[in-house]
Design brief:
Layout (H helix, E strand, L loop, with lengths): L1 H8 L10 E4 L7 E7 L2 E8 L7 H20 L10 E2 L8 E2 L5 E6 L4 E2 L7 H17 L18 H14 L5 H11 L3 H10 L6 E3 L8 E4 L4 E5 L6 E3 L1 H12 L17 H15 L5 H28 L11 H18 L1 H5 L4
Antiparallel strand pairs: 1-2, 2-3, 3-6, 4-6, 5-6, 7-9, 8-11, 9-10
Protein name: Aminoglycoside phosphotransferase
Organism: Shewanella loihica (strain ATCC BAA-1088 / PV-4)
Pfam family, one: APH
Amino acid sequence: MIDFIRQQVLPHFGVTASAKVSPLGNGHINDTFLVRWPEGEFVLQRLNTEVFTQPHALVSNAQKVAEHLLAKHEAGEYRLSVVQPVTDSQGELALDLGDQGFWRAITYLAFSHSIEVVADAAQAESAAKAFGHFSRALSDLDASQLEDVIAKFHHLPGRIAQLQAAVAKNSQGRLKECQEWVDFALSQDELLNELSEVEVLLPPRVCHNDTKINNMLFDKRDMSSMAIIDLDTCMQGHLMYDFGDMVRTFTSPEAEDSTNLARVEVREPIFAAICRGYLGELGEVLSDAERQSLWLGARVISLMIGVRFLTDHLNGDVYFHIHHENHNLERAVNQFTLYKSLLSQSDSLKAYLK
């Protein structure tokens, strides 16, 4: 892969084959590399077009979001750095090599640092403030200007239907080993009913849609918030899901694929810090219905990502990258355990949203 990038991809970006190319991050979907040469550096990605079937829409959305944030930054209304697209030698946002990949480059931020597990409430509040600030800056960008890069991305009924289809097919013969968790996921009718009543009350927003802790970069020099990255799923949506994904990825002391389930739980001080940071930034931007939906978003996202991991396990691991056998099943069980923790602490956690 590295030799191919040097010989076949970098020349299109005006970079010599002698550049240093190294893997970057641990994303589940795309292949990401850091490219460095004496005159510069950028991040290069090969987009997974099995997942992102309309990659041109993805890079177009990312450009529109970056342009909007840059304008806010120049006006003194956005304090974070902005990750921007890097065009190829023809001025294009991406390079389509057909079977050899769909490639795009974005700026690399020096001194940036990402984390996988939140250490304390201060980190959680800092990251939540950054995501809230990001959403506030985009609150006046017309959401209809962005295309859906993945149809019904945060659509729990559709994700449940996909799980049911995977169960019926059982293409890999894996159903027996995870039947207990399938039954659990398919028993959450009450949550689906609540969602159908609430979602129709929410305004469309430009959302990040993947507010994992590792999509907020810290400045390693002082661990202050630096930038929001991974704009691949920026499109129209509801803010309750951005809030929910922060809860999902910030609150557990264990990574999302940890099998140490005794430690997979929602840390109340971290949840409280998310609420302080996110609500403190968004303030009056949120409608009453949106504010009231946040607790629902936290529950839906934790359940939904568990359903998605479980579905991919049953289908033979065709969506998320795995690193060992049963990796997606381990992820699913982890997320269902976190969801159960949310339910068990419902009364105390909801108080922080009032």
